[in-house]
Amino acid sequence: MTSSQNTLSKASFSTMPLYLSAPDAVALVRRKGLKNCIAGIAANIQADFFRWTDFDKSARVANHSKDGVIELMPISDDMAYSFKYVNGHPKNTAIGLPTVMAFGVLADVATGAPTLVSELTLTTALRTAATSALAAKTLARPGSRVMALIGNGAQSEFQAIAFQHLMGIDTLRLFDIDPQATAKLLANLSGSRLRLKVCTSIAEAVKGADIVTTITADKACATILTADMLAPGMHINAVGGDCPGKTELAAEVLHAAKVFVEFTPQTRIEGDIQQMPAEFVVTELWEVLNGTRSGRESDAQITVFDSVGFALEDFSALRFMHDAALALGMGERLALIPQMVDPKNLFGTLLEGISHPAT
Question: What CATH code is assigned to 16-122+312-342?
């Protein structure tokens, strides 16, 4: 460890971690601009994926119930550690809660001291969109301009903006079984300059699309996309299948395509490839980004990014939000760790300020 790193570790330990609340995150994105935040997070993800082997990685720890899932997603390199707490409860909207709620922590590896405590509900939407667009830039045909967006819920606008500004998508073909979800998306994207076409079926939506993004919420083994809907050269951004027993693509779609994933041990449990045999061949995205393996091999090839969300993407997003908050002077310091005059005397914190009668 260099002296500067050692000094940083001591400074991190002696100060309170930065706290970025949900209102702070909203204000930060407004000040920097949504497209700039997505682009910045995508750049961090690309940089961190490029040094994939530097990270201590594991599949997330999930606790499932009949109504949803609660997960912890840890990862670290030799300098920083992060984790995300996140849930997925599709029925939540009926009682006024989001389907996904999340928060996360960045910490200094040298001391274990937390440096950032942050909301991650909004930030997860940003990093999911950033990851999708980064994968599509890497795997889709150059010049792709039309995307079908199947599922118009909470993450759909973020996907649309990411693909517009990072990929050059100018036309969206929309479908959702809930017309109110599509109406919400239309209203939110009314000033985006995207051409928006509401479709009456999935088959209609994907017809003529260069890219198909599936981002449905139901916790079910569904077949949102079937092989008869495929066209040569199509890129499929499969986002919604992200836990055991939850899929969006028919097995025949996977057989017809070259499939890319984030972290294979996790995706085989949670992704659309959970329905495939163990020997089914996939390529990890980081291998394409650093040139170890090939991506798309022809304009006619069908590619699938079976995205489930991986902890490294949250690490990248937390880094971005931390740096942006510091640069903008946002957030507040959180008294999360006892500040002790004597770090060996925790009990003494209970006695501070208490006068003792003379004996």
Answer: 3.30.1780.10
